[in-house]
Structure formats: C-alpha cells, structure tokens
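Service request form, structural biology core

Requester: graduate student, group of Dr. S.
Request type: structure prediction, single chain
Budget code: on file
Notes: please return the result as structure tokens.

Sequence provided:
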Amino acid sequence: MLDVFITSRVRRKIIVIYAKYPDFKTHVRGLAKLIKEDAGNIQRELKRLEKAGFLVSEKQGNTKIYHTNKQFIIFKELQSIVLKAQRTQTKRHVS
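Core staff response, request fulfilled:
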C-alpha cells in the first residue's frame, strides 16, 4: 500500500526502517547492507529525507550517521501509517 504513495522503492524502505525503529542509527553502507540496495541510491535518498527534516545526521570521524528526527512535524503520523500498512500487509499474507 505504501508503494502507491511513496513511489521510490529505496525511499520507501528507508522510511519504513526509520519510522518503525525511531532509535535506529546507521551509516550509508550499514543501511545498504540491511535493505540490500545500492549505497549510492541510499545516500541520495538519505540526503533528501534529511533536507525534508525526517532524518538528521551527525559526523562520527569520517562517517555520517543518520537517525530519525522524532521532532519532525509529521513523524507520529508517518510512523502510524507505516505500522498500519505493515499490519495490513501481514494480514493479507496470512489470509
């Protein structure tokens, strides 16, 4: 269902991870390994999501670590949508 509203597959996967696990912190390569997507595409989407305010980053040495901005104006609503979409998807697979 999220694929209708969030058309970028990579962006959708990133949003699901960070909305579902708001305390999750990682760098580009760690996220690439987790969601099995190209690091270049992930980096581009992370920058977009940071510019929008959904994510924030911090430098740790030479590495940029991204995490959820829990103060993002629609964070709670987005998190609720992600969780509902996943429950709906799970129910469809079980039925």
